[in-house]
Amino acid sequence: MMGFHNLIYLWALNFYNSIFMAKASEIKVGNILRYNGELVTVTEVLHRTPGKGGAFYLDKFRNIKTGKIVEARLATDEQVEICRVETNDFQYLYEDGDFMVIMDNTSYEQHNIPKALFGPAVKFLKEGMNVIVSFESEEPIMATAPNFVELEVTYTEPAVKGDTSSGALKNATTENGVEIKVPLFVNQGDKVKVDTRTGDYVERVK
């Protein structure tokens, strides 16, 4: 039987493997920190040297869960908690309530990822599609759909004969039930490329 103290040691070892302390001067854009108890990603690092007083850093952080931007004034040698984050490719399997079930392409291990982590792009996901998910201490903290997806148009009004209005758009429904705007020449059964970040039609796929 493993002793209680050994269990505590192993827990502490795993905990400190997932985070490490660093000085404010070592922070870089893209780092993920635990700041005021919340996970944030560093979006801007500015070094300030005022006429009076010591130098400091004026950083901008984006809260990973809420998306809110916060400013932080940090002394040069102030300690911050940088999190170790693992980011990998996964395959999206299916939707399960408020979660999307994904599978590790190497270990075949499955994870339930909150839909909210994908943001508005979640509606464009198709079964079998590759997605990128980041974990911190086994907790999913960020998820990204592909920037572009190819979807079949399952319904759209036929083009009106003789209507060649440049830039004119009409409504279309894709195979996963998402409504988008497409040019007049796109017909039912066509495949179209869509930008998941904006929901905009890009081109018809041959």
From TrEMBL:
Subcellular location: Cytoplasm
Pathway it works in: Protein biosynthesis; polypeptide chain elongation
Domain Translation elongation factor P/YeiP central: 87-141
Keyword GTP-binding annotated: no
UniProt-listed InterPro entries: Elong-fact-P_C, NA-bd_OB-fold, Rib_uL2_dom2, Transl_elong_fac_P/YeiP, Transl_elong_KOW-like, Transl_elong_P/YeiP_cen, Transl_elong_P/YeiP_CS, Transl_elongation_fac_P
Residues in Elongation factor P C-terminal domain copies: 149-204
GO MF annotation, one: translation elongation factor activity
Highest taxon of the lineage: Bacteria
Keywords of the record: Cytoplasm, Elongation factor, Protein biosynthesis
Entry similarity comment: Belongs to the elongation factor P family.
HAMAP family: EF_P
Role of this protein: Involved in peptide bond synthesis. Stimulates efficient translation and peptide-bond synthesis on native or reconstituted 70S ribosomes in vitro. Probably functions indirectly by altering the affinity of the ribosome for aminoacyl-tRNA, thus increasing their reactivity as acceptors for peptidyl transferase.
Name of the protein: Elongation factor P
Organism encoding this protein: Mucilaginibacter dorajii
Gene name of the encoded protein: efp_1
